[in-house]
Amino acid sequence: MRRTNIRPPNAIPHFRIELGSGFLLLLALIYFFDESGLLASLFPVVLVHELGHVFAMLFFGAYPTRLKATLAGFTMDYSGDTSDRQEMMVALAGPAFGFAFSLLCAWLGRRFDSEYLLMCAGLGFVLNIFNLLPDMSLDGGRVLDYFLRSAYGAENSLHIIRIVGLITVFLLLGFGLYRTANGNGFSLFVAAIWLFVLQRNSLVNNP
Prior knowledge:
Elements: E1 2-5, E2 16-19, H1 21-33, H2 38-59, E3 63-70, E4 73-79, H3 84-112, H4 115-131, H5 139-152, H6 154-181, H7 187-205
């Protein structure tokens, strides 16, 4: 998420959704080749997470202006005069809604013996835990940035988060390689590579 402008009084900005070509290609590949129902389970998980951010924005008087979906993930722009503490709460709202949704799906899945709901619960838990990692591209990094800025200032906070983010990526890479070598799948390794690409893009955009 990023704040793009301060909206004029009584003015509600237009909201738009942008779908990148890479994101559409990924959806197509999952749709045609995935037989486990991953896409159908992933959609409500991501939707609830993003709605958590939106509801928090609206609560603090901010408005979402753009949701952009690319191969690298989702980014949301918003306008409004929010404080640093409120921005932290907006960042936390996504995972909070996500975990609540996962718990609900887990309870309903066990109650009605639904594999689909249990898959939603599992995906939601994993994705929201991942989103809380201390990397500048994720909600966890934004929360960490709030505390670091309060203690060390904005410039020092950025340097610390970059270092912590790199350490996080290398730990994930190592653990992902270990799991892959032991035949436990390569999803964690792929997630680490994806996070590294996100961090690299953040460094390019915020040198």
